[in-house]
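Now read this:
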Amino acid sequence: MGTTRAGQLVEPGRMAFVEAPVEPLRDGDLLVRSRYASICGSDLHIVNHGVETEPDQWVPGYPGHEGVGEVAESRAAGFAPGDQVLVVPQVPEARCFAEYQRVRATSVVKLEAPLAPIEQLLMAQQLGTVVYAARQHPWDVAGRTVAVIGQGSAGLFWTWSVKRAGAARVIVADRSPSRLAASAGFGADTMVDARTADLTEAVMDLTSGEGADVVVEAVGRRETLLQSIRLCRLGGQLCWFGLPDTNDVVPIDFRVFFRRKLTAFSTYGAQNEPGLVSFRVALQHIRRGEIDVRPLLSHVVPVEEIDHAFRLADTCENGVLKVSISF
């Protein structure tokens, strides 16, 4: 079936450009010619920190799970060559960093006309995971104060989501000046530079010592997962959205959690949702212009430079909001 250009995890902390055989199709499979893929924060944790991965999973294209492209060959009903699709595989089967990827038809959403630019529709994967989490645990945030830790793509989408749901004040934090600058366009009211300010003190100052009603941790770092508890008011709610950056146990201060009577949840699994409904909702938000995802297309790097793309995504240098791969 020929070869494909791809990025491949070859050792911890290093992606390499390779040319590899295209995987043969099975019944129910599609062969998708990728146009773009994006690097997710969880990809960085897998590649750089070895989170939930083993070398036998390191096939060409892994662990990319945010992709758009067109069907090149179909072994599944309802799809034909030329169909444009959003690709949302589960990570163990993910191959979005390959130009030609084998994917189950149940892991794609056909893109119906009229289309927004396809690179913008790529952002529906990450947005869809936020939509899914919010639908699994609906909050009444109207008139309330919400703190969002991290303003990568997931954090920015959470900022947009809670503001759209009526949050009176959205406090965001990040270590990247470019991400903080972009957050105002997604609904942030107050931006805290975590390099120079203590986030806990800032939230307490802004809430007269009470804390935020709702806190979303969208980074997945040990220190921010622990810190999130101290940002909540008595009876507040927590969403731990970020995949932790370690396989080790992440401690929490349960005494504070207990005394503040907090409620916390974490969820994932939009890729398993029947009908991939949350991804379809995300596509509609983008198509209707309800959210402007163009700022997130800040850096697009060819697949031949995928190791550089991962380093760029990890350091957030040069104004990076999100790094995407082109084919």
Q: What stands out?
A: The first helix runs from residue 41 to 49. The mean pLDDT is 96. The chain has ten helices and 15 strands. The longest strand covers residues 29-38.
